[in-house]
Each structure stands twice: as C-alpha cells, then as structure tokens.
Amino acid sequence: MAQPWxxxxxxxxxxxxxxxxxxAGFEAWVVGGWVRDALLGMPRHDIxxxxxxxxxxSALVLSEAGCAVCQTGTAHGTVTAVxxxxxxxxxxxxVDGAYSDHRHPDEVRFVRDVREDLxxxxxxxxxxxxxxxxxxxxxxxxxxxxQACVIRAVGDPQRRFDEDALRIMRAVRFSLRLxxxxxxxxxxxxxxxxxxxxxxxxxxxxxxxxxxxxxxKAGRALLDQPEVMCAALPELAMARDFDQRSVYxxxxxxxxxxxxxxxxxxxTAGLAAPELQWAALLHDVAKPVTYSxxxxxxxxxxxxxxxxxxxxxxxxxxxxxxxxxxxxxxALIRWHDDRIPATVRAxxxxxxxxxxxxxxxxxxxxxxxxDLCRADAVxxxxxxxxxxxxxxxxxxxxxxxxxxxxxxxxxxxxxxGADVMRVCGMAPGPGVGMQLEVLLNAVxxxxxxxxxxxxxxxxxx
Length: 461
Ligand code: ATP
Ligand code: MG
Prior knowledge:
Radius of gyration: 28 Å
Bound molecules: adenosine-5'-triphosphate, magnesium ion
Strand order of the largest sheet: 3-4-5-2-1-8-9
CATH topology of the largest domain: Beta Polymerase, domain 2
C-alpha cells in the first residue's frame, strides 16, 4: 500500500547524512518538526537528524563523507553538517537528566535507543522519527493526534511541564500555529502550572512570545490562555479584570488589549509588521499603574502612552527582541493616544516625531500608527468606533505628504548651514542651527516651499 511518505521529497542532503552514518554502522533518523510538517503536507527545509553515533563519531563519518562539520552544540550531542550547501543538525540519541529549576536539565545522558530519545520530546506530534526505508516510527501516537488536531504531552503532562516550563509556551504556540486543541489533561496541567513560566529565562520566553505575536495570534493567546500569557508577561496581569470606569470602554483593560491585537490583524489583512503587533500587545500596559479617578468616579490614565512606551522598552529588552522593533513599537505606543487635528501641519508634526524615534521609517510607521489607532477605536465602545473612519482623512494626508517628501529635519532643507552663514553674515555657532530650525518650521507650516531660491530669498530679507 502506498504510504504518505512515498510522496515526501526528503532533501538529498538529509539522505546523504543518513546514508553516510548507516554505512559506517550507525542508525539515523529524521526527527521532530520536519516529520510533523511532512505529515501535515508541508515538508520544509530545516531537518534534524538523530543518531546513535556520538557527536565525535558523527563528525568523523560526515567529514569523511565530504560534509563541512561545525561543533554547534556538542554539550548536547549536536553537530551541524553542511551537505550540498544545506545545514543539517545531527544529534546523538539522548535523554534529559533531572531538572531542578524548571528550565535546564542538570545533565544530558546519551542513550542507545531512538525510542528513549523520542520519549524526552515535548508533544506526541513532535516525537516521531522517519527513515527513507524503514518509514515512520511513532511510539506515542503522534500521527493519530495530528489527524485529530490535538497537542498532547508525551507522558505525564504535569511532570513534563515541571521539567521544563518553556513547554507550556510551546504548547500554546503550536496550538495557535496549527489551529489545534490542547488535549484536556495537557491543558489542565498547563493552566495549573502556568506560573512556572516566570522561572524560565526571559529570552527563551521572548522567543516563543515573539513567534506568537508575529503569527498575529497574541489576541487569541490572551483570550484563550490568560494564565500563561500573564506569567509570560507579568506586567499584563494587573490589566486583567481592571475596570476602566469609563463610558468609552465596554471591556476591561486586558480584554481591550486582546481586541486591539485582533483588530490590528483585521485592518492589515493579517500582514501587520512585527512592531505594530508588539505595540498592539503593549499599548495599554501602563494603564493600571497610571489610573486615577475624578470626583465623579470616572477613570483616567494620564500619561499612560509615555509610561507604556518606557515599560514596553524594558519588557522587549528583557525578551531580547531586536532593537529596531523595540524602537518602532515604543514610538507607536508613545503616540497611540494623541488626538491630533486632521491637518497637514499636525500630520507633519507626527512625521517629525516618528522620524526622531526611527529615522527614515516615518512614513511606514505613520500608516502603522493609524492602523493601531483604528484598532484601538473599534475596541472601545460602539460610539468610539466612528473615530476609526475619521482616521481615513489622516491616511489621505500621510499619502499626500509621502509623495511630497517634506523635510523633517534641517538636513533635508534645500539650504544648509554654510548658506545661512554666507547670506546672513553669521559666524559658526548655535545661532546657525537655530536659524535652520526657524526655516524648517516655516517650511513645515507651509509658509515657504522647500526650494533653494525661496529659502535664500527669505534669509536675505
Ligand atoms: P518549529 O517549526 O517551530 O521549529 P520544531 O518542532 O522544529 O518546530 P524546535 O524548537 O526546532 O521545534 O525543536 C525541534 C524538536 O526538538 C521538537 O520537534 C521537539 O521534538 C524537540 N524539542 C524542542 N524543544 C523541546 C523542549 N523544550 N522539550 C522537549 N522537546 C523539545
Ligand atoms: Mg525547528
């Protein structure tokens, strides 16, 4: 009978690696994510191979077979063989020793049986091995769980999450990515043990959270797995059930954030830039700490965009998010609540602010800011939603400004400091910069065109 893997195209490089190891008397399998994705009908490029050879034996055999071999993780038994230009990770069968801190095995132990190696893997769908001739090795029912669209821990979920709490985040990530349910026992353990995610190194949590955010699934994750998300991002825990005491808000702060994340996806047809997705997740993170109440009992959050931007920088640094995303997301958060008039002047101010935070990125960021404002507006109350359509006027103005490329800094003016000194007879010094600032203002206000002749004439007047 034809097997599904008859159709699989295993990259030649992986076949070569397996053949070389097996000719030398070892056993080797493709394992983990590649097998899962191939069974789902989406084979991919990065391939992990698992073998009973020690890393030194793998290194020797594979370099003799003509691969370049890098010692990428020998403490865990891993070398990377570059074969046909493709990197293939080759790891010795291993089990993890005891975990005393929910995050690092105290030791790894190399073993002789591939089944033992599969048993230390996190979920049944990730614990399958495949061989070009021997076919599928699936001791934990991963294929059945794939068909049933289920994420299930290998073995006792409580013990597995206790060993490594990052698996809690991984369960959430895989369920969102594949659209799978988490099997009830696994889900129960996940909820009970969610708090231990806080013990995991922040950059490991950051990597999982970033993947969830970039898939556009942060809103879903907040609504479906609040315990996990609040453990991963403790700053959000205060937002949960936080009553805004405002006629403009039908949701508490946490639910509002989740709706904004979802709305950003909807407004960008699922193509939101990572900084916009991070900004949506963190835009109101400072609301609980800036809350005040007026005499009528109405809630206010004065200064929450500024403070939120600062908190977001600290959070994203901790999570090892790339700096260019941090800078852009914090700028979006900083300006998300500004009610500016729909005038060229106000739009230029906005572009100047964005260009100061992220030089050269002001136009795309302006569109992202407007998408964030739209998402924010439709996630408040029905009457606030009308603001979202007013934002179309702003989008038109940004489009207009992006065509004109207005000067946003004195360096983009059609005259420079030397012109100022010559025409005004000024000596070098701060006065020259001030004069350029005056010119920049006049151009931005539309009083002068950014044309050399006009600016020189204005200077000499
Ligand atoms: P992705 O497409 O996200 O890379 P993947 O399955 O390849 O999915 P990796 O993080 O690259 O995931 O890990 C490779 C394999 O290693 C997994 O399929 C799983 O078998 C195992 N694994 C990874 N992390 C853990 C963990 N924390 N606990 C147990 N097994 C793990
Ligand atoms: Mg992988």
